[in-house]
Fold this sequence. Notes:
Mean pLDDT: 93
Strand order of the largest sheet: 3-2-1-4-6-5-7
CATH topology: Spore Coat Polysaccharide Biosynthesis Protein SpsA, Chain A
Largest sheet: 7 strands, mixed
CATH architecture: Alpha-Beta Complex
Number of helices: 11
Strand content: 5-15%
CATH class: Alpha Beta
Amino acid sequence: MSILDFMLLDITIVTAFFDLGREKWTPEQGxxxxxxxxxxxxxxxxxxxxxxxxxxxxYTSPEFVAEVQGRRRGKEDRTTIIPLPFFDLFQDRRETxxxxxxxxxxxxxxxxxxxxxxxxxSPDYVLLTNLKPYFVLHAVQNGFVRNGQVAWIDFGxxxxxxQRAGSDFWQxxxxxxxxxxxxFTPYRGEIALDDIVANNVAYIVGGCVVGRKELWASFAxxxxxxxxxxxxxxxxxxxxxLFLMASLYRPDLFDIHLVGVEGWWDPFRYFNINxxx
Length: 277
């Protein structure tokens, strides 16, 4: 491996926001307490992501375009917004997820404590989390990414400005021959895949992934393979499980950086040359 494998490439950020009706995710509607969230909360949190000077690509519904533009004011030359009719797309995949979530076999296999979590009752939530690599690959293939590295970051990832670690520009010399995931704990096969899904065990941070733009096609193919494998077993799950499975299919393609059980925002503290705190 040469020094060229650790080039300091600027990072394009890709994200997406579609209103999944989370404002109504209440216990009365069949969800676990604490998952309710309004669109205003998401947009306010997005302001913290939008403060980065990085090139940013946002997929969203037409009704949120103006809100996104307003939060990127002054950075128009580094901002691409793609309006999409999300709920009119991917219907076959959504129907597959919905059928599995409602199947007696799936319900019987899930830990009863997890029955009311979004991964178990919201097909739109599972669909959107499964499509994160798709959106990044779409941005790459359509020329929306001008930088060598590209990352997915969740739209509402930063709950406060402090979680950006004092930085307004995310930049780090990630190894260019790897996809970079961030993990809470190493996975050594101690829990079977079915039990990971059944008990909602998270090994990988789903909200932040980064890699050289040429590698995202491979990553998207691996996560699609993971979703298909789960479906053949009458299972569905969110991005965290798909990313773990992808890393098991091709361990040579991935660096998994451990951030600890409370390390959701560590990528921007310890993997950012501009971090100040």
